[in-house]
């Protein structure tokens, strides 16, 4: 899994069109979303993650918690983003991984939003620009090499 973490004044999105034949079903309310004072986490779930999705979820939560505590962010925006890797996991696995990360972050006490999966979306982001405001992390299941 590849993650791009951006500490932001706000992140807002608006669903534009389907990017998959069967995108995640969403309500009218989920077609737009916004959070202020948020750690935005753009995530590409990768093929290698399919060998142990549960482990990748836990490792991602550890990394996100670590960055959130460093930048003192209490809100997380989980954002599916298929542009950080050329070896993507198949959509059904990727969606489950992202849904589980959302659940686990809520269990850890964060306020969490997750952008809809399988859509083209317009988004606006205001990066805070401090030294820890732009970070990336790569997570692989044990026994997999980082490519
Ligand atoms: N920016 C717009 C967009 O990325 N849209 C992506 C994601 O929402 C989602 N998606 C599909 N596969 C994956 C994956 N392996 N990891 C993350 N998201 C995925 O499906 C869309 C088309 O690839």
Descriptive overview:
This protein has 147 residues and is an alpha/beta fold. 24% of the residues lie in helices and 37% in strands. Strands 1, 2, 3, 4, 5 and 6 form a six-stranded mixed β-sheet that branches. Helix 2 (91-107) links the parallel strand 3 and strand 4. The termini are close together.
The poorly predicted ranges are none
Strand content bin = 35-45%
Could you report the average pLDDT, rounded to the nearest whole number? Answer: 97
Distinct small-molecule ligands in the complex? 3'-deoxy-3'-(glycylamino)adenosine
Using the CA coordinates, give the radius of gyration.
14 Å
Shape: globular
The helix/strand order is EEHEHEEE
Helix run count: 2
Tell me the structural class: alpha/beta
Task: Summarize the entry for a quick read.
Helices cover 24% and strands 37% of the residues.
List the helices and strands and how they pair.
Elements: E1 2-18, E2 32-44, H1 53-71, E3 75-80, H2 91-107, E4 111-114, E5 119-127, E6 134-138
Parallel strand pairs: 2-3, 3-4
Antiparallel strand pairs: 1-2, 1-5, 1-6
Helix pairs in contact: 1-2
The chain binds 3'-deoxy-3'-(glycylamino)adenosine.
């Amino acid at each position: 899994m590849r993650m791009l973490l951006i500490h932001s004044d706000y992140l807002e999105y608006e669903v534009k069109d389907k990017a998959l034949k069967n995108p995640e079903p969403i309500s009218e309310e989920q077609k737009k979303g916004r959070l202020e004072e948020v750690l935005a986490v753009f995530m590409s779930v990768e093929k290698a993650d399919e060998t142990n999705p549960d482990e990748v979820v836990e490792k991602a939560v550890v990394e996100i918690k670590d960055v959130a505590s460093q930048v003192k962010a209490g809100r997380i925006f989980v954002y599916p983003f298929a542009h950080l890797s050329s070896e993507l996991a198949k959509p059904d696995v990727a969606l489950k991984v992202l849904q589980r990360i959302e659940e686990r972050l809520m269990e850890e006490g964060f306020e969490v939003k997750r952008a809809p999966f399988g859509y083209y979306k317009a988004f606006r982001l205001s990066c805070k620009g401090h030294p820890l405001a732009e970070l990336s992390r790569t997570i692989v299941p044990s026994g997999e090499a980082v490519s």
